[in-house]
Design a protein that fits this description.
The chain is mainly alpha-helical. It is 64% helix and 3% strand.
Amino acid sequence: MILALLQDAPQQTFQANGLEHLMPPASGGIWFLATVVKLLLIFTIYMVGVMLVIWLERRVCAFIQDRRGPNLVGPHGLLQSVADGVKNIMKEETYPGQAYLPLFVLAPTLAFIPALLVWSVIPYGAPWVTSKGTIDMALAPMPIGFLFILSIASLGVYGIVLAGWSSNNKYSLLGGLRSSAQMISYEIAMGMSTIPVLLLAGDVSLDKVVAQQAGWGTHWNVINTTIAFFIFIVAAFAETNRLPFDLPEAESELIAGYHSEYSAMKFSMFFIAEYANMMTASALMATLFFGGWDIPFTLWDNVAPHIFLKTLLTFLFFWVKIMVFVFIFIWIRWTLPRFRYDQLMSLGWKFMLPTALAYIVIIAGGTVGLEYAGLHPSNWLFAVIMLGINIVLLVILFGFIDRGRLISPAYSRLDKRDLDTLRRARFVRVRFESATSEGGAD
């Protein structure tokens, strides 16, 4: 019925300043109906996607560790996450005697809701132009969409901090404090890393960011702002508390940290929030740096007619990009060890933040210089020059400045010469103790 109501997409478009403008948005009942359908569709796909990502993590980690993984509940273990959910729903809820119950109960929800709200402004497909108007493929396409994301995503830390404090458990409190320090530290670097993207787009609307990258794939921001992408993906790992940044949980140190006192479905909500945040971060990386719903190596999805088939294919391609980043999250978790806490703080404040600030200046200067020379960001030569600049900066950053010292979980704060001195002193002490023990035995 809905497809019949919105069919017969018109072919009329017009050009202004080199950009293609669509028909006015749908109004009245059509807009409300489309919004309800999008809401139900995205919420269902999102929640089912979280369940499948949990299954995917188990299968991938089993593959990495050369074992089978879940394979008994449903075909290839696909229903294992459903079985776990039913089990947690049926479990008895326990509450610590000294816990502050109002916040203890509210904290798991506060950890999950911000990740879900961010999806309301992310464009997940090409606009669908119908005879009734244009249907935007975003629940709430805001002109300040990126600012909305920064403000809402920063609220997720409250759920974790309140869970640690309200449990009245020292290990939970330490996990909550670690999480607040970690997320605040890396939120700054994450926000700074996106400024070069916004400079190129000239707007804070995510639709404009995607439109600026549209084309053959040569204008994706991962090419124009490579170091910004590197900073963003590292900060995304820290923001989602994923390895090697899972210090707030740290089972070997804090007995699972902030959710030690939780049980049943409330315990599961924190894991659902973690995977939901992982999918949200993946969607943001795809949108900001990999063209969003744009299909590379073709212009077919960027020009009229804007039919339903284009919307569907761009929607599917957007989810392919998301799943690539989800796989990277899983791959890194089962590959790298955990950072020490001093390394985590040092990386965020001493390396990523200064790098992001310096990179903003370089990209702003390069963009102004190239535009003064007559090269607009839509020009392919602009992308080539920016790629060359980023390659030079990567060589300087990792080949000369870092040299494997900062970006390494095994790196020690000690200078190499001091470390060698300590090793020699230990060797002398061991030899002296060994000679003393042998003399005493004689």
